[in-house]
Amino acid sequence: MATTITRPKTLIGKAIRRREDPRLITGTATYVEDIKMPGMHYAVVVRSPHAAAKIRSIDTSKAAARPGVVAIFTGQDVSKVGPVPCGASLPGLRVPNHTILATDRVYYAGHPVAVVVATDRYIAADAADDVEVDWEVLKAVADPLKALEPGAPAVHPQWPDNKAFDFHQEHGDIDKAFAEADVIVKQRILSQRLIPTPMETRGVVAEWRAADRALNLYSSTQIPHLLRSMVAQMLGLEENRLRVVAPEVGGGFGCKLNVYAEEALMGFVAMKINKPVKWIETRRENYLTTIHGRGHVDDYELSAKRDGTITGIKLRIIQDLGAYHQLLTPAIPTLSVLMMPGLYKTQNIFADIVGVFTNCVPTDAYRGAGRPEATHGIERMVDILAAELKMDPAEIRLKNFVQPNEFPFPTATGLIYDSGDYAAPLKKALDIAEYEKLRREQSESRKQGRLMGIGMSAYGEICAFGPSPATPAGGWESATVKIEPSGKVTVLTGTSPHGQGEETTFAQIAADELGVDIDDVLVVHGDTALVQYGIGTFGSRATAVGGTAVYFALQDLKAKIKKFGAMLLNSDDVTLANGQCIDNKTGASKSVQEIAAASYRAMQLPPNTEPGMVSTHFWEPPNFTFPFGAHLVVTEVDRDTGAVKVVRYIAVDDCGNILNPLIVTGQVHGGVAQGIGQALYEQAVYDEAGQLITGELMDYAVPKAHMLPWIESDHTVTPTPVNPLGVKGVGEAGTIGCSPAVVNSVVDALSPLGVKHIDMPMTPEKIWKLIRSAQ
Amino acid sequence: MNIHVTINGKNYSHDVEPRLLLIHYLREVVGLTGPHIGCETSLCGACTVELGGKAVKSCTMFAVQANGASITTIEGLAANGKLHAIQEAFWNEHGLQCGFCTPGMIMASKQILDRNPNPTEEEIRHGLEGNICRCTGYQHIVNAVKAAAKATGA
């Protein structure tokens, strides 16, 4: 029987508005803070006001006496809970014991020392203020360069040199490259500490079901399954008795790709008081205690021939780690080393990383995680080299790019770049900008004394994490696709989207593959009780790895549909198309829905075939993917105030095939906004005593609507051969491509004044001083 | 203290602590989930609601200060099962990603359009200065406000 085909032939590539939005635009979504349970209690964490101090004693009696307070726990009480885990391993890595509450000493301002539990959140906050800690304040060190100086205060007394690790990597013949170079350029480049700032802070609700010995943990996380494994281990609880739910998550940008003390602590509290407990991080706590990003001091040297050919790159990274290793802290700068060649051919590299402890909150993965630093470095250095050789910055890039016929391309750092045409986005950006004309305008404007700049970057990034042997926790992703007896389709993904829109893109994939209406597809994620084990959402991996798992689960299902269809049609030659299984000889057909119903009814089964219509696939990627692109930025600097105005922002990104252009454009915009944030506005500043003086939104300049330009977003499309969808990932591209393009533009604007380099953030004060000192 | 408020057209009366913040009243006492807390310091705007016809940040106002007021939250925008034009525009233009700032962003957008039915890009950006979005870079939000203006003007 034939049915009318009512759906378009393909949904992939269409700008479909998101299926997650109705609950979000009506205020009915359930974030952690929206969860309420009968008998729920509230927890407030007591934190250290000092960056380094010994705890002489803690007096909780006054707090405990407050009506409504039901429990207070300190470091001694939680001594059986395992440490906050570090998932990264490097040779010789020093790993401090990171207990969930401090015991005898604190290592950064904000360090948790106790937790107060009460029947009401206001009472808990009052009681937290009543906890009295007798401190012996110690000298702190917040600057990684100062931490490396002899005689600096030791963050951890057992390691007086404040070094957590040394890492080295080299390839080719760097000495020869530098010995034979026509020109060598050197520059120290800073990638300042940043605060990720998702609009939803962290939060946890824990519910202990004593009779079942089962713990339900609701957390604002990007990695529910990994969190389950690790919190179970910390609490000594069987993993299958811990259910982790990532409900609606209000942004992460990497900072929720982690396991935090409070996640285990709330589980501990719920088990102790035998009541549900809620903890919601304040913004102040978020800035003090959720991981920061970047924190690099990078010393670069580039060797080159007179014609602009780059022959070697040397890089020494000083990584500000903070006081502890969070989940991936020490691994982040190794990603900078992996991507240090950028899009360029050179096979001679030499890299050192020194990981430095400071009395600050740990750094870890923040949007881009090591790759923005690498891209910023190489793209600044290429501009510095171009200036030295008096070459055009576009020309020098085009000269050094890996060429389209050289893929798969083995890099000097041991990666295999998958596919690319690196010149294409750059040329497209130059075309959009009308580059020649723009340069003429610039020379005219300079004659009038105006400070106009044109800057560009050509970036590459490593995405779709990743092959399991190259990742700390398995790099595959999982999907289950079920066609229910009614014919409705449910997709369970191991990824954990929190704004990226996979409830829509994965539904597009499923609807296309099965030929069903997209409204018949539901995508479920973020609940370990519902979804098979998964890895999560980070590293621009969700669609490239998780979407591919969905795709392969669908292929298995399609084969099963055809088996059942052939049986029902009494045919040995069937085709599945547009939701119909068609007998190629007679033209008779059965719909996917009819076939699914028959598979559950199971009156008859094809040979060697089980009833039902469910398939689970764990997809192991054979390689990373390597998106690329070019950003071009026109700026104008106000000579009197030092203010930078971004006049034009052109982003040409190649993320492989595009499943939903609306979502991809949104990712680019958001990425660029965070890149401009780093380039112009944002910096986490600690004073000498280790106090975070940008500890609120008042002092930490997250860009607002009037602080950002209109972004002209365009694309080239080079599919990856790594996965059958041909998608590479786009979540971090904007951030990675952005900051060097903005800085290159402003340096270009100020180059008539002799300015050769500017570190971020390029605040008006900094620029004004540069202009003043040049005059 | 006893307060009487009208929220999304419904009357409420509660005895509240004088120090209870309006955002906590709306969320904990009345049971709404739309207004969010992003900073507790009136900087992020996730808690924006309409009070007496003006967009206010409910995290820096006491519930008792709202006594006698009429409040509209994001939950009160859709009428008869039909989304408000601004909600529809945010959806169509992909004006949100994680959605946490969205209720406040939509309420702020409503005030922009209430005051100026046909704002320029610059006026929209200026009008949104009190609301922070970390996901979108604001461009699709600007598009959404423009689209809503067009839809309501038509």
Please tell me about this protein's structure.
The complex is a heterodimer of chains A (775) and B (154). With 775 residues, chain A is α+β, with helices and mostly antiparallel strands. Chain A has 3 domains: 21-28 and 476-619, Aldehyde Oxidoreductase, domain 4 (2-Layer Sandwich); 32-138 and 201-249 and 256-289, Aldehyde Oxidoreductase, domain 3, CATH 3.90.1170.50; 296-466 and 623-774, 2-Layer Sandwich (Aldehyde Oxidoreductase, domain 4). In chain A, 29% of the residues lie in helices and 23% in strands. Chain A has a 7-stranded mixed sheet with strand order 3-5-1-12-9-10-11, sandwiched between helices. Chain A has a 5-stranded mixed sheet with strand order 7-15-14-13-8. Chain B is an alpha+beta fold and 154 residues long. Chain B folds into 2 domains: 2-76, Beta-grasp domain (Ubiquitin-like (UB roll)), CATH 3.10.20.30; 85-153, [2Fe-2S]-binding domain (DNA polymerase, domain 1, Orthogonal Bundle), CATH 1.10.150.120. Chain B has helices spanning 22-29, 85-92, 102-115, 121-127, 139-153; strands at residues 2-7, 10-15, 48-51, 54-57, 70-72. Chain B has a 5-stranded mixed sheet, with helices on one face. In chain B, a hairpin with a 2-residue loop joins β3 (48-51) and β4 (54-57). In chain B, α2 packs across α5 (139-153). Chain B starts with a strand and ends with a helix. The chains are: A alpha+beta (775), B alpha+beta (154). Chains A and B meet through α1 and α17 of A and α2, α3, α4 and α5 of B.
Largest interchain contact: A-B, 56 and 57 residues
CATH superfamily heading of the largest domain in chain B: Beta-grasp domain
Stretches of chain B where pLDDT is under 50 for at least 5 consecutive residues are none
Describe the strand arrangement of the main beta sheet of chain B, using strand numbers: 2-1-5-3-4
Low-confidence residue ranges of chain A = 1-8
Spatial strand order of the main sheet of chain A: 3-5-1-12-9-10-11
Supply the number of structural domains of chain B.
2
